[in-house]
């Protein structure tokens, strides 16, 4: 396997090129996959891997222009793609999206809860509405989508697979991202509760945690945080960041027939960054300082 020729340690090898797949061609033929936030970034990368393996797609998020562009890109990979404008914070709209999906393709077999909201902010500066908007989209939206998926499969007596995209600060806490970390901890807990509740009905519920995987669609808030922190290749134990397709490959495996006995598990795809410890503790830098903010004043 080719490795970088460098004087220092080489880091983890690069992944196979875009378009490669570990699963047999057609693994998801006849399968419908619903991806929230499937019009951008990691959601689009996950949707693309399912499409390459034969799936029909439903992508759902708020902004119709981005959804339409992604629909055309994804349709070029093979299957039929439906774009559904939806704010997942609205349970009535969530139900309508499932109605539309059923009408166009049949009940989705796989649900990827990828949509989320986030921005870095010191907790003392966070307004109640800022907290609410992140927790509503990330945790409540994930529950509304999952509930709708589960109810319909239970009624139809059909199996299904749910994948909740998380973040490793669900375990560690996330200073500067307290709202998102609390919401992702809730999302991880849902995986564990629902895998047991719905296992008897044939519904798998797993979590999938990306490490740092930069992409062109990142919001200015998140991109600004990466740029400010220089949090890139050299700061990762792998000596590289993740590629969005690496998350897509993991998602297709978890939803595939080869992972039928895996449920209630959260798979971390981050080159061990979240396990990182040093022999000597690094200096403490407050979140305010990291974000370049002055002292707190009421
Ligand atoms: C540790 C490991 C490292 C790891 C390194 C980093 C990687 C972390 C992992 C990444 C995890 C992710 O989830 S990345 C996914 C990020 N993608 C997204 O967030 C896409 C969707 N985002 C959005 O739509 C917007 O950015 C967002 C603000 C969240 C929601 O928009 P809405 O239209 O719902 O709401 P708005 O009305 O604009 O704003 C709602 C309130 O939030 C406040 N608000 C908005 N931006 C704010 C900001 N930067 N700072 C303070 N407050 C803010 C507003 O002032 C409002 O409060 P009031 O003024 O009081 O009304
Ligand atoms: N990129 C990374 O390095 C990491 C990402 N993650 C996780 O990966 C997932 C994808 O993140 P990423 O691709 O980077 O971010 P993006 O900002 O590209 O994706 C977020 C998606 O969610 C959609 N969305 C946001 N709010 C709502 C809402 N209320 N209703 C419906 N859709 C919504 C957005 O579309 P629209 O605006 O059109 O609604 C967008 O497509 C998230 O769960 C994130 O927490 C975790 C760790 C690291």
UniProtKB/TrEMBL annotation:
Primary location: other
InterPro entries xref list: KR_dom, NAD(P)-bd_dom_sf, Peroxisomal_t2-enoyl-CoA_red, SDR_fam
Subunit structure: Interacts with PEX5, probably required to target it into peroxisomes.
Record region (Disordered): 1-24
Annotated localization: Peroxisome
One Pfam family linked to the record: adh_short_C2
Biased composition (Pro residues): 10-19
Top-level taxon: Bacteria
Catalytic activity, reaction form: (2E)-octenoyl-CoA + NADPH + H(+) = octanoyl-CoA + NADP(+); a (2E)-enoyl-CoA + NADPH + H(+) = a 2,3-saturated acyl-CoA + NADP(+); (2E)-tetradecenoyl-CoA + NADPH + H(+) = tetradecanoyl-CoA + NADP(+); (2E)-dodecenoyl-CoA + NADPH + H(+) = dodecanoyl-CoA + NADP(+)
Organism: Streptomyces kanamyceticus
Keywords: Fatty acid biosynthesis, Fatty acid metabolism, Lipid biosynthesis, Lipid metabolism, NADP, Oxidoreductase, Peroxisome, Phosphoprotein
Name this polypeptide is given: Peroxisomal trans-2-enoyl-CoA reductase
Keyword Lipid metabolism: yes
Alphabetical GO biological process terms: fatty acid biosynthetic process
Domain Ketoreductase: 31-252
EC numbers, comma separated: 1.3.1.38
Biological pathway: Lipid metabolism
Function recorded in the entry: Participates in chain elongation of fatty acids. Catalyzes the reduction of trans-2-enoyl-CoAs of varying chain lengths from 6:1 to 16:1, having maximum activity with 10:1 CoA. Has no 2,4-dienoyl-CoA reductase activity.
SMART domains assigned: PKS_KR
Organism lineage: Bacteria, Bacillati, Actinomycetota, Actinomycetes, Kitasatosporales
Any one Gene Ontology molecular-function term assigned to this protein's record: trans-2-enoyl-CoA reductase (NADPH) activity
UniProt entry tagged with the keyword Ribonucleoprotein: no
């Amino acid at each position: 396997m080719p490795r970088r020729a460098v004087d220092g340690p080489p880091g983890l090898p690069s992944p196979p090129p875009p378009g490669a797949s570990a699963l047999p061609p057609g693994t998801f033929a006849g399968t419908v996959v619903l991806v929230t936030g499937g019009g951008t970034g990691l959601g689009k990368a996950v949707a693309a891997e399912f499409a390459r393996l034969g799936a029909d797609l439903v992508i759902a998020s708020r902004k119709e222009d981005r959804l339409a562009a992604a629909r055309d890109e994804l349709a070029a990979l093979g299957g039929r793609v439906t774009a559904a404008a939806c704010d997942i914070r609205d349970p009535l709209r969530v139900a309508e999206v499932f109605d539309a999906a059923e009408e166009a393709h049949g009940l989705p077999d796989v649900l990827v809860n990828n949509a989320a909201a986030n921005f870095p902010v010191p907790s003392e500066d966070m307004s109640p509405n800022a907290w609410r908007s992140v927790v509503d989209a990330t945790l409540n939206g994930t529950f509304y989508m999952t509930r709708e998926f589960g109810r319909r499969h239970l009624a139809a007596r059909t199996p299904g697979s749910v994948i909740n995209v998380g973040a490793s600060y669900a375990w560690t806490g996330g200073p500067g991202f307290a709202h998102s970390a609390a919401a992702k901890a809730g999302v991880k807990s849902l995986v564990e509760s629902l895998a047991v509740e719905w296992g008897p009905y044939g519904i798998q519920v797993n979590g999938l945690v990306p490490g740092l995987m930069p992409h062109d669609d990142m919001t200015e808030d998140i991109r600004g945080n990466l740029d400010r922190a220089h949090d890139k290749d050299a700061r990762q134990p792998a000596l590289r960041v993740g590629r969005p397709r690496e998350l897509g490959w993991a998602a297709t495996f978890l939803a595939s027939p080869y992972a039928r006995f895996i449920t209630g598990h959260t798979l971390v795809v981050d080159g061990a960054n979240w396990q990182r410890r040093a022999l000597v503790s690094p200096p403490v830098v407050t979140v305010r300082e990291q974000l370049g903010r002055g002292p707190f004043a009421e």
